[in-house]
Design brief:
Helix 1 crosses helix 5 and helix 5 packs parallel to helix 9. By secondary structure, the protein is α+β, with helices and mostly antiparallel strands. The strands form 3 sheets. The protein has an 8-stranded mixed beta sheet with strand order 1-5-6-11-10-9-7-8. A 5-stranded mixed beta sheet has the order 13-12-14-15-16, sandwiched between helices. It has a 3-stranded antiparallel beta sheet with strand order 2-4-3. It is elongated. A hairpin with an 8-residue loop joins strand 9 and strand 10.
């Protein structure tokens, strides 16, 4: 007997009861993005590996350890996208969207990273992201943070998350800080764990983001990035904080917040929660003014964010804020005999055309009234339509109310449309 095939570890199915919730959440996020004048963009799941090496950084964990990379039949190195910013920039450049103009874009879909699966962190995971191109000032940073704050308010979880921000300054500031950081950690190399020792020569800023408690004091005493700020870096970050204050958005400055990708400059931010254990970040982003040029376009200011949909759904469940979903079916047609089924299907098709949002099911399984009404009740339908020989002869149907205490009644086929319109 053949072995039953299973989904790949870390790549999960979403059954209808789950996708109904996801659709509500995704719809709310998209609606709020539209309120901020962001438009949807879609780009491929597979990109040239070079795109991520150039954008994310060859020394990052994503490129070194986590990407699903393969050689196709033409000998090209391709990768499943591990994040959405780089493909969004590539698409924007290729389609002529990022040329001396402001462009506000949002996207959603699966990303892929080969890492150890755990709750809220999977090998195929879903993100909702937004990117803003062409606005160099700090107000664009605040606009995106304000959008995310609106997400939480809409979903009823404002009290469950808090905002952490930091500034990475300009590339020149980062280079000066990097040199000081390397010199400092070299003096204390014996106190670094294996991962941090590796990062010391590749991406030393990430050492500040280590969760190893044994290194906490060492990291706390490391050279602070803010000590190297120039006037531009200071002015940008000051205005971000002032604008957040003006908008009434509470935040905490976290000097250890660095983000893991090479392309960030100036503002970086994370929305975190204490309700999901160690996987506490549900949304993160920042400014990346050098990435467009790095990928091959003309220099353009940019800022964006991505939020993990799995973690957001888990947080909604933890806060008992999972949005309600509507019933799958509005009207369920119970039929007796083949002729009744054929007539019901014909009338049902006319009703679906006349009332496009009506969700109507004709019971094609058959059986007794009792079994059909059990299926009708299980479907969540508000009403059942009953069609037998007598009704067929008079071109009428009986209406039985399944969720209301109202008497059963008989109406003509011609009266169905105005009667059923109130149930959509």
């Amino acid at each position: 007997m053949s072995k039953t095939l299973q989904a790949i570890r870390g790549m999960n199915d979403l059954v209808p009861a789950q996708t109904a919730v996801w659709r509500v959440v995704e719809s709310r996020l998209a609606d709020i993005a539209s309120q901020f004048a962001y438009q949807e963009i879609r780009f491929p799941i597979v990109e040239q590996t070079e795109l991520f090496k150039r954008a994310v950084g060859e020394s990052t964990d994503i490129v070194e350890k986590e990407m699903y990379t393969f050689t196709d039949r033409n000998g090209d190195s391709l990768s499943l996208r591990p994040e959405g910013t780089a493909p969004c920039v590539r698409a924007g450049l290729q389609q002529g969207l990022i040329v001396q103009q402001v462009q506000r874009l949002w996207y959603t879909g699966p990303m892929f990273r080969h890492e150890r699966p755990q709750k809220g962190r999977y090998r195929q995971f879903y993100q909702f992201g937004a990117e803003n191109f062409g606005m160099p000032g700090p107000l664009a940073d605040v606009e995106l943070i304000a959008m995310t704050a609106q997400f939480w308010q809409s979903l009823g979880i404002t009290d469950a998350v808090h905002l952490e921000i930091n500034s990475l300054g300009t590339p020149a500031v980062r280079q000066q800080h990097r040199e000081a950081l390397v010199a400092y950690f070299e003096q204390h190399r014996d106190q670094l764990d294996e991962d941090s020792q590796r990062r010391l020569s590749t991406n030393p800023l990430r050492i500040l983001d280590s969760k190893n408690p044994a290194m906490a004091d060492l990291i706390a005493s490391a050279p602070a990035l803010s000590d190297y700020f120039d006037e531009v870096s200071t002015a940008h970050f000051t205005q971000v904080k002032q604008s957040l204050d003006t908008c009434g958005i509470t935040y905490r400055v976290n000097p250890q917040l660095v983000r893991g990708l090479d392309y960030y400059t100036h503002t970086v931010f994370e929305w975190v929660t204490d309700k999901l254990g160690s996987q506490n970040a549900i949304c993160a982003g920042g400014r990346y003014d050098g990435l467009v040029e790095q990928i091959g376009g003309k220099a353009a200011p940019a800022v964006g964010f991505a939020l993990g949909l799995e973690r957001l759904i888990l947080l909604l469940e933890a806060c008992d804020k999972t949005p309600e979903t509507s019933a799958v079916v509005d009207v369920y047609w119970v039929c007796v005999g083949d002729a009744a089924v054929q007539q019901a299907m014909q009338v049902a098709q006319t009703l679906r055309t006349a009332i496009p949002t009506l969700r109507l099911v004709v019971d094609a399984v058959g059986g007794s009234f009792k079994s059909q009404f059990k299926r009708a009740d299980k479907s969540g339908a508000a009403i059942a339509l009953i069609l037998g020989d007598d009704e067929l002869a008079s071109q009428s149907v009986q209406i039985k109310y399944l969720r209301e205490d109202k008497p059963q009644k008989t109406i003509l086929f011609s009266e169905l449309e105005p009667c059923l319109s109130r149930y959509v």
